[in-house]
Amino acid sequence: MKRQLLNYAAVVILSASVTTSQAQTYPSRLLQNEPQIESIIKSMTLEEKINMLHGKNMFSSAGIPRLGIADVEYADGPFGIREEMEPHSWNSANLTTDSATFFPTGSALAATWSTEWAYAYGKGMSREARLRGKDMILGPAINIQRIPTGGRTYEYLSEDPLLSGMLAVAYTRGSQDDGTAVCLKHYALNNQEDYRGFVDVRISDRAMHEIYLRPFEMAVREADAWGVMAAYNKVNGRWCSENEHLLTTVLRQQWGFPGMVISDWGGVHSTVDAVTAGMNVEMPGSRFMGQALLDSVKAGKVSEAVIDQRVREILRVRLTVKPVAKEVANSLPVGNPEEMATALEVARRSIVLLKNEALLPIDLKRVKRIAVIGENAVTKMALGGVGAGVKTRCEITPLEGLQTLLGNSVSITYAPGYKSFDRESRNKRMIPQQPADRQLMAEAVEAAKKADLVIFFAGDNREVETEGSDRKSIMLPSGQDELATALAKANQRLVTVIVSGGPVDISTVNKVSGALLASWFNGSMGGKALAEVLTGKVSPSGKLPMTWPNRLEDVPAYTTGTYPQHIDNNNQGDIFVDITRNRSNDRRQQLIANYAEESLVGYRWYDRKQAPVAYPFGFGLSYAQFVYSNLEVQPTSEGFDVKFDLANTSAVDAEEVAQVYVSRPSSKIERPVKELKGFQRIALKAGERRTVTIPVRRADLCHWDESSQSWMLESGAMTVLVGGSSDSLPLNKDTAIF
């Protein structure tokens, strides 16, 4: 064991010498019980060891009862603790004590650009997990948003690795400081839902490390993440669940990860390869890592030393996370005021004002009659589609938020306007792009004619954006474009609110609307937060965590023809859907996803191609006006500090997200035009001016060197750019790093 700990420390020191500020303070908290763990392992039978390496129930894996080691209980859902399920099915246990807070989903959290609130979010998730008797949260979900149509774009954070990574670090620290392990997912390159169970991602080592692995590395090395979930797909020819390069070379050796890896549900495809590559727990069953693994050990195909190591890694987590007694779990209510308050604060900061031609905030001296149009004004988003949802005690819809805040001061009329794509229509094999409903549209137009202001709630819902399948387009569903055009003809004072988890085609609504906002799937308190922003109680301060393209054809994966892929047999289904219906998840045909754009994801691609977009990465308006000035760049031992003055020149208290980008046009290696290297959310009172300092770390200036398989820092000139959006950077200064 002493040799093992020395080897572990050597890995950490070697890594730290390359990227100094990435390294955490070691040893990991997971290594505090090594002598006890060794004693436990020596006391275990082989059968007991094998029993820990696969699912016991749908969301638990076995402990060692005779030794007092509790089962590991998993909490499904990165944005709220899923309701309790029957032990061996996806059916609800029908408890009355298993509600939870519906936190804003991943893209909403990312739109806050706030590490402070990401930490509070992780802490809130942990507090509720503990009340529900859970040891590990299956989240945060931190895959890069490669395509806007991705079924889980709403769960993921951003197209940018630094923004994703810094928020993942904060979420992880918040959860684990409170006592609940995280499980970073989905490791790695699970960037699409269509064919995720058998697609093979092909990508260069450099692009993989710099873009797609970087958020995982940051959360492991800087936040000591205790769990990782292996993705469904293949990477460079090997399933993630048995990919030795990902699970051993990168995760355990390069990053020094001492924790446990669990499979995505039904994502294991082998016995010997999976356990030797680094897989700890097959979920939710025991097809490969139960009796088959026991037989493999007895036959000499897997050494018991490998089994011991896999058990050791599980026990590190189990002994670090204090178990919750079965009789205590689910005995107290969840979804309490403190967590609801966190959900509200995140939602307030996530809403992005995209356009405003003097319609907002609502002028209550002028506006006495409001027409609220669109099913998304009343649709609840905690549940829907395939995958994790939240049985929440409270979800304030946008209409409810407006009614509560405005009270009797304004007359509010509601008309649905369109019929959303939902589970019922899905069973009838309808598609989201169904035509407008003429009767509903006519009723909405009549309501609009009588109003002083029209607020149109467009966008998607949780049936359109869902795990297991990608959207086929980003067009607004259910004839919403036609409805928006008709509403604008009836009343030019039209505000459109986009409710979605990711980008949609706004070419029509942008033209006909005087104001446009993105409000995401914004959690239990989302309706209250939106009403506060619309009325000016809160100034909007969200920034887009991903680019909103003009057309789907402009997105790099589509432009290069590498997405979508096509298969010979369209009935191959989805791996998760198959296991929920007890069907085989074997796949005969393998599809190749060639990431031809390499590191040019999102804004990096549009910058390089000089391609116009609907709204750029980092964009977001305010009711206030901010002025940037006096940029200075000062070297530090960790990189350099970017100092500048930021002034709120308006009469409105507001928050701004200042962003730092770096450009290296004279670099000897291929680089994007510019890359995000730092950001900070700053609250300023009306008329206030402040000097802001944003550190840029050497670690974040490095590139991945494929020949040495390490991070390298290229010396030389660079330009530092500062502003409020990736396309609005009024300050710049040339500097150099050596």
Keywords:
738 residues, alpha/beta, Rossmann fold, 4 domains, seven-stranded mixed beta sheet, 22 helices, 26 strands, 30% helix, disordered N terminus
Number of DSSP strand runs: 26
Instruction: Return residue spans where pLDDT drops below 50 for at least 5 consecutive residues.
Output: 1-25
Strand arrangement in the largest pleated sheet: 1-2-3-4-5-7-10
CATH architecture of the largest domain: Alpha-Beta Barrel
What sort of overall outline do the alpha carbons produce when their principal axes are compared? globular
Distance between the amino and carboxyl termini: 40 Å
Look at the structure and give the mean pLDDT: 93
Percentage of helical residues? 25-40%
Structural class: alpha/beta
Classified in CATH, the superfamily of the largest domain is Glycoside hydrolase, family 3, N-terminal domain
**With helices defined by DSSP (H or I, 4 residues minimum), what is the helix count?**
22
CATH fold topology of the largest domain: TIM Barrel
Radius of gyration, in Å, reads: 25 Å
Range of strand content: 15-25%
Number of domains: 4
CATH class of the largest domain: Alpha Beta
Taking the sheet with the most strands, its summary is: 7 strands, mixed
